[in-house]
Every structure is written in C-alpha cells, then in structure tokens.
Write a structure and sequence with these properties.
Number of strands: 12
CATH architecture of the largest domain: 3-Layer(aba) Sandwich
CATH topology of the largest domain: Aspartate Aminotransferase, domain 2
Bound molecules: pyridoxal-5'-phosphate
Structural class: alpha/beta
Largest sheet: 7 strands, mixed
Oligomer: single chain
Strand order of the largest sheet: 1-7-6-5-4-2-3
Strand content: 5-15%
Radius of gyration: 22 Å
Length: 409
Amino acid sequence: MTDKKFHPADKIQDLQYFGEFGGVNPSISDSSTYTFLSAKTMFDTFEGNADGCYLYSRHSSPSNLYLGQALAAMEGTETANVAASGMGAITSVLMQLCGQSDHIVSSRTIYGGTYAFMKNFLPKFGITTSFVDITKHDKVEAAITPDTKVLYCETVSNPLLEIADIAGLAAIAKKHNLKLVVDNTFSPLSVAPVKLGADVVVHSLTKFINGISATVGGVACGTQQFINDMRNVNDGAAMLLGPTMDSLRAASILKNLRTLHIRMKQHSHNAMFLAKRFEADGLRVVYPGLESHPGHELYKGMINHEYGYGGMMTLDAGNLDKANELMELMQHRNLGYLAVSLGFYKTLFSAPGTSTSSEIPLEEQKEMGLNDGLIRFSIGLDNDIERTYQLMGECMEEVGVLKTKPVFV
Ligand code: PLP
C-alpha cells in the first residue's frame, strides 16, 4: 500500500474534536437519551433525517460517532459504527448482509468465535457457510453458489497468520456480486482493506487498537449507506440486536487510538526481531515478515511498510505439554502472560488449539495445520528486545524446545 495521499495515522491525528469547555479531548456524552425542543424534530430524527440530533444512545451518541469517524479515517471508509465487542460488530454485519437461505464463503482459518457463529449459530436462521482455504482462489470460486452473499476473511488469519490476497478476493467478490467483509484486527494501519477493494472492514478494538487490554470493543467500517442500514430503527442489525458500545469506553478507546501508530511500529519491530532470531535458532516460526512465510511476498506488496508486518507470531513447541511448560516458565520469568487476546504492551501467549480456536473441531484443526503444540504470541512493546530474546531462549532451552543454547550476537 504505497498511496502517498493516504496516511492512515495522519488522518487520525488530523481529526480535531474539542470538549465543550475547550478541552483537548471531546466531552463524553453521559446520556442514554436526548431532549428535543420540538416534537417535529424528534419525529424527523426517528425518520433519520435530522442531522446533528441524537435520539437514543443505542442508535448513536456523540462519543461513539467521534470514535467511529476516527476509525473510518484510519480505514479510508466513508463512515463506521462502533460496537460493544468485535463479535458485536461481526455478527451484526453478517446478519445485516444475509437473510434466510443465504450463503457465506469464509476462510477456514478465522477467529474461533467467528467460526462458531457461522458454523453453529447462523444455520438457525437458514444461513449456511462454506469454509475454504482462502489462499486458493479456485477453491473460493468453486464454493460460491447462487445464494452466496458474503465472502469473509481475516487479512492475517487467527491463529495461523495466513495472508488473504484482498485485491484478488475483491475481484472474485465483484465478479459474483458478493460483499467482501474483512476482519483487519491483526493488521491495523499496516493494511487498509478497503483500499484493496473490500466492502466492509471489521475490527476487534479489544486488541491493538485499544492496546491496553482494558475493555472489549468492535467496529464495522463501510459506506454511509451500509452503516445507515445497520442503524436503521426498523431493520438495522446494529440498532435491533443492540451491541452498543458505552460512551465512556468509546472516549477512552479514542484516546488510545491516537498512539496506535507508535505502538504498531514497536510491536512489528519486536516481533520481526524475535521471529528472525528464533528461526535462525532452528525453531518453526511463522511470521509474515519472514521470507519463509508462504504469504510473505504477497503481504510485502499489501502493507504500509512504515507499520511493518505486525505483532503476531507463532512458534511450534512440538506438543501441547511442551507448549504449556514453556508458557508457564515464560510467565514465571515475567516475559509475558499466559493469556488469550492480543495487542497488549506485554507479550501474551496461548495455545490456540485449546483456547481461542477450540471451537474448531480437532480434525478440522489438523486439516488446516493447527497443531496442539502451536503457541500464538502477541509480541509486546518491550524496550530491550535483545534481552527478551535471551531470556525467552533460556526458557526454550530449559524445557527442551531449543536443543542448543540460543545464539547471542
Ligand atoms: N476477530 C479476531 C481476529 C479476533 O482475534 C477476535 C477475538 O479474539 C475477534 C474478532 C472477536 O473480538 P471480541 O473479543 O472483541 O469480541
């Protein structure tokens, strides 16, 4: 992504919102409902044609709109709708786009909750999903039926870190008149999926964007028309399912978003450092920044290089017992936390097969290459990553994941 006119971080920084007393941060809207001077304006607001008026905070609130605008600026979309969680955003987008007997073609390696929603929950409404290897475009096309409405993927997949060729998938979506929905949670700022042809971008704000593991949150970014449809009082999924973010949370996430560009650079720098070193030590490391990654060349051409290849890396410890032993030892040595989620200042690690992807049946995990010894790392903002490498290497040697002492240079 080399579009010089589109600097997502600058677009966020350029947005100025002041508080009502001249505060440098916007005032927080601490109200669930809003008064009207005239009954006519209230009616118009219900009808959706009274700009600048607020009705009820499940519909929209000033704080949520500020955050939504900043995220839309980051993704290069017309607008966005924030939600109480990533799943709140994903589920309402899919339910907005699909109805009875519709069909979704989805990447098979996606976050376990999204997978479970498509596999187990949507069929209750007659919506079915075919899960495919999204890196094989012939498989994607073969799965499309006349009922298909949505093509779904993650830019960098959870947990296998597969890269979706968004421009290629957008061309397929266009050809078959589908909406391409992309979860960009692992790669904010690095990739702008809409610039590559996606129709809707979703995020779990819980992760890198908020960056302090203090709350869950989500967003759907898209056209004004689509977001208006999601908010429609009569049939909008966001309005009627009610996954609304609280204003206090929206205000705090907006403040953290202002430093996302600095954090992403450090996450990427640290992850690249560890990935290169551990690979050189002979470990099976998966990181999109490594030349050994099958999607490396593709990703290189997609990313905004300033923000790098991201903070997510996996390492195969061989089996679950070894993975658990290693994670417990690293936690004991204060190198990170054995915790799900990602995008924190501290490194987080978990074994996805038994945690965040446990919704995916074992035989399907095997088929997609998800071993039980796989450890997913969200690399933190460590100041001295060389020191972290040495200390992690010692843990790996102690539990027998590294056969020889780590190479210190
Ligand atoms: N998308 C991805 C890629 C995720 O990793 C997650 C959560 O782990 C979600 C969506 C769901 O987000 P949330 O937990 O905020 O509902």
